[in-house]
Amino acid sequence: MTDARSARPYVASRSQYGIGAARLRVEDARHLRGQARFLADIALPGMRDAVFVRSPVAHGRLLDVRPPSDTPSGACWTAADLGASARPVAATGALPGFRAAAYPPLATDTVRYVGEPIAMVLGDDRAAAADLADRVDVRIEALPAVSDLDQALAERPALVHESWPDNVYVRVARSFGDVEAAARAADVSITREYRIARQSCAPLECRGVIAHYDPGMDQLVVYSATQFPHVLRDALAERLEPEVRRLRVIAPDVGGGFGAKVSLYPEELAIAAAALRCGHPIRWVESRREHLVAATQAHGHRIRVTAHASASGAILAVEAEIVADAGAYSIWPWTASMDATMAAAMIPGPYRIRDYRFTSTTVATNKAPLGPYRGVSRPVACFAIERTVDELARRLGAEPYDLRVRNMVRPEQMPYTSVAGRVYDSGDYPEAVRQAVKLIGHNAWRCRQRQTDPGERTRIGIGYAAFTEQTAHGVAEWVNRGIPVTFGTESARVVLDATGRLTVACGIKELGQGLETCLAQVVGEVFDVDPGAVAVVQGDTALTPRGDGTFSSRSIVMAGGAAHGAATTLAAKVRRAAAALLDRPADELRFADGRIAGSDASITLRELARTFLLRPERVPAEIEPGLEATCHYRPDVQTGAFTYATHAAVVEVDLDTGLVRVLDYAVAEDCGTVVNPLIVDDQIVGGVAQGIGTALLEELVYDGDGRPRATSLTDYFLPGVSDVPRIRVHHLETPSPHTVHGVKGVGESGAIAPPAAIANAVSDALAAFDVFIGEVPLTPARVWTALRGAGNGP
Fold first, then answer.
1. Most exposed residue of 319, 358, 655, 738, measured as fewest CB within 10 angstroms of its CB?
2. Residue 662: beta bridge partners?
3. What strands lie across the sheet with 660-670, from one edge to the other?
4. Three-state secondary structure readout of 353-386
């Protein structure tokens, strides 16, 4: 067992097998053949399906829950039925003054959002359970609901939690440098307010969980479409109180997560608690309506930004007031403050800002809890600062991309500690802007703009957005966040079996990102074997070393580092064994296409493994038994690696309808060493598609009583093929000095900048009409109203 930490920057080999090889995804084969096994595909003997009775009101006193008289015994579970067997979740943050309220698996005396689970009903199939659930009599006395930020922060608001003095989870204020002096020295100061709507994570596969007690193993087995199996196991053990060894969590194939599957949910807790007391398995598969209403949601921020600058365009200081709608409960383990504090830390972005202050206020409303979503508040921070940079450029009469370049951290300043204390590890931020300008064909679009007939009823605009993305956060960074669980390490075990095949087992979870292929490439690089011959095991706490899971763009950095450490340790042992069997010096031997070869002799991995494992008497006694190695990896620098990019968008705005169409899109990004170009490009393109949804389409609307109005995909609009243009990607590829292979995370970066880039493009298109663009999504109605509000048309 080894403890591998940071290694020197790695230059990609571009071999056919290892790091840098453009390999097709090995995991796609089972999906294309219909052989993947998702949670809904699992059928266990005697299994019954669960349906949750959910609150129809946003806020109310729960007076009574009464199942129909013909309900079979054990078919309806309420909080009283669960009793003390499932303790409520309390996600309390360590930030001073943080307030949290217990989040019960099933509502007790009060409901606080539409969709909150009240009772769990079991049936022989989902239809039978749903029929019974419809007949459960629920009596609720309605209470005033807090449906938006203004209501939450009113002078005498209705209270989401009646024991609180107000609706504030926590308020944080920080100041860096001398903002007042910078403001006095500024030639230009502008203040703008921005809003970014609530949206759904909307993975292809919704949530789901199966639980059953195995008496033979004395073990509660939980199948969950989760992003962090080991952490979920520990969380359930803490609240249900069996020993961890008596809990096994299995994550089968998972159809996307985007953050929606990396929290502890009341449904998981209720089903696991009931399964401990039942003699049969219980399964719950979430419907799309349930997901839109009751799963964790994202964004819902209001940010007021003030920027102070010199006449030459140097940004001297920035002030930010951030308000985040965190919903009715603090979600475990991230806590309600996650989004607002992340936005505050990332607003300075890639710029040399030395004077900065912010306040972040996280408020409770009668909505589903706020949770992680691809980018975790970085789209919010990017939207706020990048729109402000464009507004500043307009005030100064500067080209927006040029103003960015003038203010960015320069490559010779790396590593650079931002004003918020983040260590930017490597890169050339201005070059990313210049490359985006080239990719989008900036001058040609500007020429086309100038040639537009004033009577034309459409306008074209160009927009840019740059950002830094903190990936693979270390232990110290999570401690600073003040959440109940500290992440920051990952483990991997690599085994060479008697057939000469390699297996890597790790605690992360493949969700569709291509992690199986990438980890196989990491191991394939060390042994010079085809990644298709390397098996990857993940998603089962009984078969893998403990890991923190897949989130925060950490998997290839953390699990890749662990897999590399385990593989190199095992490779050294294999080389020593081969040296003994071949009677050659170990330092002369090299791995080559499944063999270990010297200058005049070689042995296949299969031959070596069979000898080592089946005929150990032929191996010198000084070589310890076993052909496996485990590595626990943690980078030395705890603030994470920093991916960065500049996105460029060209849009067409219809002045009569307000419709925005994205004509062209380009990304110049740097995620360090690229493990697999095909997968990285696909991750970026997929992220941009999601970001287009944030920018133009996706919005969870609530009425004044806190009732959701988007409860199906006919009300909640996701981007389709016609909404996503051709996306070009350019890689700068500056290895991080802090990670194995020099890799940085890339899973979230594509989704961060599109709202800002597209909004800037719309603002550019409508520059002649004096329209301020400060809210996304930019729906046709919102754009049309803004145009008419500025006096442009009937």
1. 655
2. 651
3. 458-471, 641-654, 660-670, 727-731
4. CCEEEEEEEEECCCCCCECCCCCCCHHHHHHHHH
